[in-house]
Every structure is written in C-alpha cells, then in structure tokens.
Design brief:
The model has no long low-confidence stretch (mean pLDDT 91). It contains 2 helices and 5 strands; from the N terminus they run ββαβββα. It is flat, with a radius of gyration of 14 Å. It has helices spanning 18-27, 75-97, and strands at residues 7-10, 13-16, 35-43, 47-55, 61-70. The longest helix has 23 residues, at 75-97.
C-alpha cells in the first residue's frame, strides 16, 4: 500500500478512520472492480447486526466483517445505530483485507 492513510488517536493508539479505508479501497488499483457490501443479519427496534463482504472482481468473497450495535449504547446510537453498525462492519471487513491495520 503505497498510499498513506490519515490516522487519529483513540486511547493512545493510531486508528485509520473507516472513511479513509473506504476511500483507499475505492481508489487503489489493486482493488479495481472489487465490491464492498453489507447485509442485515438481524434488525430490531433496539439493535442491529450486519455482515460486510469484500469481493474480488470475480465475485469471490475475500474478506468479511461483522458488527452489532445497540440503540441505547450512546447518544449517537439513539438516532443512527443502523448506520453505525454498517460502518463498523465495513471497518472490520476492510481491516480483515489488510486495509487500515
């Protein structure tokens, strides 16, 4: 990965934000024609579980990532727990691919 991604400090450690991972994935020549998708595993009024998949240009799943968010975990989750769950699943899938870790 010749591209250096911006990091932020979280609990004293460098962390590559999900938006940076996605930008890299979408622009890197190595991943041209690849896809990043997320599917609901379970959604209720109070929680969401999602699984993200990274597929290569041939449609073969190369990496996955799962996430679960509870609506009452934080103020942000109260209005956006589904979106946060998707973002977390994307982060894990891209991390499992080796992007941003």
């Amino acid at each position: 990965m010749g591209n250096i991604m911006k990091t932020i400090k979280i609990h004293g450690n460098n962390y590559v934000e999900v938006k940076e991972r996605i930008k890299y994935f979408r622009s890197a020549e190595d991943y041209k024609g690849w896809s990043l998708t997320a599917d609901f595993v379970e959604v209720t009024d109070t929680s969401c579980t999602m699984r993200a998949k990274v597929k290569n240009q041939n449609g073969i799943t190369i990496a996955t990532g799962s996430a679960r968010e509870e609506k009452n975990n934080s103020n942000m989750n109260r209005s956006s727990f589904v979106e946060i769950c998707e973002t977390s699943a994307f982060a894990r899938a891209l991390g499992n691919l080796g992007i941003g870790i």
